[in-house]
Design a protein that fits this description.
single chain, mainly alpha, Growth Hormone, Chain: A
């Protein structure tokens, strides 16, 4: 039975407001009577806060559309500028993961939402042609706090839901957050259409009150789970666990592609296909929008057919889409390029959902094989989620650096796209070898292993 504490009461060793002392989502009776309703409420407001966080994280991917010749920043400089927030956000995901257990999911959501005010306020001050490139990079780095929100949100929601629903819940949480990318791109498009490409501060002004609303909603409607606690042993075990780094590679291929392409899409359209800021803004939101919307579908498919299977076929599809993009880049065909590039967004979103479903499934299987309890699986999968999210986000940095080098040396994105095609080939080979390949009968008899194909 769960004891939910609200108001100014204190429960157990936890202090403050809205602490839940006991939480057992794997118990069907508890889940139907209490757990489902509480988890859904926390999921809804977690999505909202994470959504705003993603928008702030993506801020400079739209600010560069407003940076005309007066800013004196070349294409390579712009690709590097949008890579900086990705790098900072990736690094922050590790401490954000453990902040949930240290301070409580509700409490940390309030803090992490409020921190978004800083990059917005400073960005509004410096956004003019007279600002130095170094200042732009420093301010861009501040928006990395929006990327950290994802890790704390996913770790928190992972603890609320039973294993059989984690794929859908984590996919919905992440997909709703990912929607922050296309939404801020649509906001930028509306500003350019309505006020022209010389009013970037309007975008920032729209988001300032939304950040305040997100923090207030977290304070009023979310809960802390007292059973969650910092476990440095789980973190150390996650670092030593080979599956952590294998899943990090796969997540670089899915989420790294999504966030990297989201930040770079507009710049690629401007520099390779010579689109105007308005022309680029009219197209950039489509891929991130579809990739975000389909992420819960990837989680649901993984719940039904196994995350490893869905991830394997998804990487095959991403490799095929990358091949289309390579052809279109060489042929200089914008329509074919858009088909292939948007397909990359869709499959990256699908794979985001399936890879995250794999993580709790892997450690549930390991717990059963080694005789550990479900609490062990939840603690270790929570730690791994944070590390995988951090390393996976670095894929966005690599993508923007690849574009930067490609346009510097070849004046086109084709070499970068060829590299992405090779990376997806590596990812589907690793997925098959580690999670789908059946061991030889003799080896299987000597050392039985969990059925990872089902995770």
């Amino acid at each position: 039975m769960s004891t939910e504490v609200t108001g100014t009461e204190t429960a157990g060793t936890a202090t403050g407001r809205r602490w839940i002392q006991e939480w057992n989502p794997e118990d069907p009776g508890f889940w139907e009577s209490t757990g489902r309703r509480t988890a859904a409420r926390n999921l809804a407001f977690s999505v909202f806060s994470e959504h705003i966080g993603f928008s702030v994280w993506s801020l400079w991917s739209v600010m560069v559309l407003f940076m005309g010749p007066k800013y004196h920043i070349d294409p390579a400089g712009k690709f590097f500028l949008v890579a900086v927030p990705t790098l900072v956000g990736a690094v922050l995901r590790v401490p954000y993961t453990f902040a949930v257990a240290r301070f409580g999911g509700r409490n940390w959501t309030i803090v992490s939402a409020a921190l978004l005010l800083l990059p917005l306020a400073v960005g509004a001050i410096v956004m003019n042609p007279g600002t130095s490139y170094t200042t732009f990079m420093l301010v861009g780095a501040l928006t990395g706090v929006g990327g950290g929100n994802f890790a704390s949100s996913m770790t928190n929601i992972n603890a609320f839901y039973p294993l059989r629903l984690k794929g859908w819940a984590l996919g919905l949480n992440a997909g709703g957050g990912n929607l922050g990318v296309p939404v801020i791109q649509l906001v930028a498009l509306a500003v350019i259409l309505g006020a022209g490409a010389t009013h970037p501060r309007t975008v920032i002004a729209i988001y300032l009150p939304l950040v305040v609303v997100a923090a207030l909603c977290a304070a009023l409607f979310m809960d802390n789970l007292a059973p969650m606690k910092n476990d440095t042993r789980s973190f150390r075990a996650a670092v030593r666990e080979p599956h952590t780094w294998i899943m990090s590679l796969l997540y670089i291929g899915t989420f790294g592609s999504f966030i990297g392409f989201s930040f770079a899409f507009g710049l690629v359209l401007q520099n390779q296909f010579h689109r105007t800021p308005l022309g680029a803004a009219e197209l950039t939101f489509i891929g991130p929008l579809l990739g975000s919307l389909i992420r819960p579908v990837g989680g649901r498919l993984a719940d039904s057919f196994g995350g490893a299977r869905v991830t394997f076929y998804n990487f095959l599809a991403m490799a095929a889409a990358a091949a289309v993009v390579v052809y279109a880049s060489q042929a200089k065909s914008l329509p074919v390029f858009l088909v292939g590039f948007i397909a990359l967004f869709v499959f990256s979103g699908l794979g985001n959902g399936s890879t995250y479903k794999m993580i709790p499934g892997i450690f549930q299987a390991k717990a059963q094989a080694a005789g550990h309890d479900e609490a062990w699986a939840r603690r270790l999968s929570g730690a791994v989620i944070g590390l995988v999210g951090a390393v996976g986000a670095l894929g966005g940095v690599l993508i923007n650096l690849a574009f930067r080098e490609s346009f510097l040396t070849a004046k086109t994105g084709t070499p970068a796209f060829v590299g992405f095609l090779a990376a997806y080939g590596l990812c589907f080979a690793v997925t098959w070898a580690v999670y789908l390949r059946k061991p030889a009968p003799a080896a299987a008899a000597q050392a039985p292993v969990p059925a990872y194909a089902e995770v």
